[in-house]
Each structure stands twice: as C-alpha cells, then as structure tokens.
Amino acid sequence: MEIIHFFLDLLRDPREFIQGWIETLGLWAYAPIFLIIFCETGLVFTPFLPGDSLLFAVGVFCAPDVAATSSGAHLNVVAALVIFISAAILGNTSNYWIGRGFGHAIIDSGRVKSLTPERIAKLHQFFEKYGALTIVITRFFPFLRTFAPFIAGTSRMNFAKFTLFNAIGGILWVSLFTLLGYFFGGIPFVQEHFEYIIFGIIGISLLPTIIGVLKAKFGKKASSESTESTEAKASPEASPEASPEGE
C-alpha cells in the first residue's frame, strides 16, 4: 500500500519529492528522476509512472528566476535535458529488446493487464499508418509510449530505424515538457494552482488514448450489431408446422 500512496502523491504534486531529493541527494537528485523516466519508458510493466508531470515539475526547478521552494532547491536545465533525454532513449531501447526477446510470451501470458488487446490493436493501426514515426508520436501518449517500443521489438522493426526515431521522440518529449515548466512554471497562477495544472497535463495527455479506446470499443459493438442484423435478415423465416395427415 505504501508504494501505491507514493506513486499517487508523486502523480498529484511531484514538487515535494523533487525538493526532498535535491536537499538530501544534492547532485545525485537527478538519479531518482532518471530512474522513473527510464522505468516508465523502458519496462512494459510500469506504464503508470508520471513522466509528463514529472518533467514539467523538473522544468520548474530549473528556472533561475523561480523561487520553486523556500529552500531555493534548484536543478540545471542543460543537465536535466541531457540526463532525462538519455533516460527516455535508453528506456525505449530497453523496452524494444524486451519485446524482441520476450514479447510474444509476455502478451500470451496476460500478466500485463494494462497491455490490453485494444491498445495492441491501436498500436498496430499506428504502425500501419505512420510506420516508424509511431515511435515519435506515441511519446506524447501515456501508456502507448511504454508499449510502442515493446511492440516494435515484438514485430522486429529494424533496430537502426527504431533508434533514429527513438532519439527524435525522446528529444522532443523531454524538451517540450521540461521547457514548458522552465518558462511557465514560475507564473503565479501556475504556482498557486500547481496540482490542477498537473492534473490538466495528465488529462490532456490521456485524452487521445481514452478517445481511441472508446472508439474501438463502440466501433466493435456497432460492427457486431450490424453483423447480427444482417444475419437475421438473411436467415429464412421459420416455416409453419405441417398439419397431421388425415385431419
């Protein structure tokens, strides 16, 4: 239960955790953040980790003109970008090789409950439509960014091509959310309503995934109903029973 509370609190407002890491770990404060970013993107079992909101909070602590905390806890923006882009790229690479080596066994086992058939189908649609660019696009979708490199590995995508798009996606994703926090995190409104901003970021990030799941679910239902209706119309009407002979 403690680990669940930890992740819920981290999801709600990561500032307290980052401040504590800076105060207790000093230069090593980047390490736990690196680990979270790596695990979210690199382990198919941990898609629930809060990458977007954590990177935004990191950006807040990087801003030189922001009193992010009363203690003056601070991170360096260049170091943060380099370290966390590395975490994102290495994480995807790890997930690719997990998928390539054990992908089918993991999917068949059904132990990763969040790796639903709907999400797998959605990712296959992405790959069919966008090809390797899917690795970049899904960086901005929670859950899908964890599963996309895994499916790429399972499908044995060319590793050189995967690495190129993995690097592009990692750079864009980490830079966007970190620099958003860096430039806008110090605005008084953002500081005063930080938890709501975090939930807004999470909600906007999840929205395309939720819409995709709902469309897949209701589309499948509508298709099923249409098929049943067609079959019912095509089937011959039951003929009345014949009267007994001699009556």
**Which blocks of ≥5 consecutive residues have pLDDT under 50?**
238-247
Terminal CA distance reads: 78 Å
User: What fraction of the residues are assigned to beta strands by DSSP?
Assistant: under 5%
Rounded to an integer in angstroms, the radius of gyration calculated over CA atoms is 24 Å
The total of helices stands at 11
SSE order, one letter for each helix or strand: HHHHHHHHHHH
Query: What share of residues is helical?
Result: over 70%
- Mean of all residue-level pLDDT scores: 81
The best one-word shape is: globular
> Mind summarizing the main beta sheet?
none
Using DSSP, what is the number of strands? 0
Class based on secondary structure composition and strand pairing: mainly alpha
Domain count, please report it.
1
Fold blueprint:
Blueprint: H1 2-12, H2 15-25, H3 30-42, H4 51-62, H5 77-109, H6 117-130, H7 134-137, H8 144-154, H9 159-184, H10 188-192, H11 194-234
Quick overview of this protein structure:
With about 250 residues, this protein is mainly α. The protein has one domain (about 1-220).
Question: How does this model look, in words?
Answer:
This protein has one domain (about 1-220). The protein is built from 11 helices and no strands. It has about 250 residues and is mainly alpha-helical.
List keywords for this structure.
247 residues; mainly alpha
